[in-house]
Structures are given as structure tokens and as C-alpha cells.
Amino acid sequence: MIGKFVLAGAALVVGIGLAGNVDAAAMKKGPAMGKMSLTSADIKPGAPIADEQVANLFGCKGGNVSPELKWSGAPAGAKSFAVTIYDPDAPTGSGFWHWVVFNIPANVTELPKGAGDPKAGSMPSGAVQSRTDFGIQSYGGPCPPPGDKAHRYIITVFAVDVDHLDADANAAPAVIGFNLHYHTLAKGSLIAKYGRAK
Prior knowledge:
Phosphatidylethanolamine-binding Protein, 6-stranded mixed beta sheet, 3-stranded antiparallel beta sheet
């Protein structure tokens, strides 16, 4: 029994030692998060998402065109922006990330329709599109399983307190989310829905 306690104590010490290697400054919580306004000419809050924005894979036959987005109300300390689209209703146990963009310059307040297609060349200079849960570095539209209830798609803009997040285009959505958690000054969201008949 004593041996078990010794092992448990050693594990605790190791755990504390590992935690001590984490950058304490990066883990500090910032001030209370502010709110921003986010609007879209293509997606309306609570409304069904149009076929133009729906994916064209996994049996879906939409246009897979990323929506136009505009935001305002960023705090003065914002040094860049990030945009994500997330489906919390996907049957994965962890939701599904459809679009992840970060390092959008601080003087940019909108993304034009179709900016999620790297071939279009309309993403602001310096902005990075990283991997989605489709495994692509671009926009991937809604495509829930047939017969599922309509899924919610949460579109969020983040005002970020650094020019560049410590990540690149190969970063997983969770890595970007981790960075945003500690660097977001304010954010705004809109939620729309999409479902497919059986």
C-alpha cells in the first residue's frame, strides 16, 4: 500500500514539474471579453443556409462558396482577426470545424464571398487558412448526415491581441482554438442552420 502512495506522489510531482514548463504568461486570462458585431449578406441568423454555401462532397451538391462576412466593434488593442465556422451538432463527439482563418490584418473588417477558395486570391494578404476537419486548408460548407436534425453552424470573428498566432496552415482546429482562447479580446457570432432530408 505504501508503494502505491509513493508512486502516486511521484506521478503528482512529475505532473507539477511538467505544468511548470508551460509559459505562465500565455496561460493568464485577459480582461473580460468584449462583444463585436458580425453580419453576412449571404447567411442570416437562425435561417437555413443557402445551397451556394453548402459543401459539394459527402453526397452534398452545393456551391461550397464561403459567405461574405463583415464585422465591427473591435477593441482598440486588436492586432489581428480570426474567423471560424463550427458545427457543434456533428456526430463526432467533438463537433466539426468547417473553416479556420487567422492572422487577418487589423485593418481588415470583412471577407468577400468566396474568400475561402485559395484559388480565388481574395483572402487578405497575410491571412492563413488552416486545416479544417475535412482535412483541407480552405472553406468546407455544411453537409450533415441525411435525416439528422438541422445542424447549427456557428460563425465567429475574434479580435486577437497579437499580429500572428503561433501556428501555420497545417495546424489542427483545436490548436488554433487553444491559441485564440488566450489571445481573444472580443468576439461576435452568428448562427444559422442546415439539414438534409433522408
